[in-house]
Amino acid sequence: MLKKTAIGGVRTKVVALGIGSGISEFELEHIASAPQDENVILVQDYSSLADVEDQLRSASCKGK
């Protein structure tokens, strides 16, 4: 599902990426477009980004 943004009513897909401890998954789920299981990504630190690179690419580039 695409969210309508405040900028000109353009529909966009929102992927929420949380890095570090103390990140609220609940808040990220409210930021991200549905389905949240595909569009919310959590990692412990910046060095862990490589571990979710494929998931991030898939979530952000789907349909391109």
Helicity, in percent?
A: 25-40%
**Estimated radius of gyration:** 12 Å
Q: What is the succession of H and E elements? A: EEEHHEH
Average of the residue pLDDT scores: 84
Q: What would you call the quaternary organization?
A: single chain
Question: Helices and strands: which structural class?
Answer: alpha+beta
Number of domains: 1
Overall form: globular
How would you sum up this structure in a few lines?
With 64 residues, the protein is an alpha+beta fold. It contains 3 helices and 4 strands.
Task: Give a verbal description of the structure.
- By secondary structure, the protein is α+β, with helices and mostly antiparallel strands.
- It has one domain.
- The two termini are 16 Å apart.
- Strand 1 and strand 2 form a beta hairpin.
- Helix content is 31%, strand content 19%.
- The protein is built from three helices and four strands, in the order E-E-E-H-H-E-H.
- The strands form two sheets. Strands 1-2 form a two-stranded antiparallel ribbon. The protein has a two-stranded parallel sheet with strand order 3-4.
- The model has no long low-confidence stretch (mean pLDDT 84).
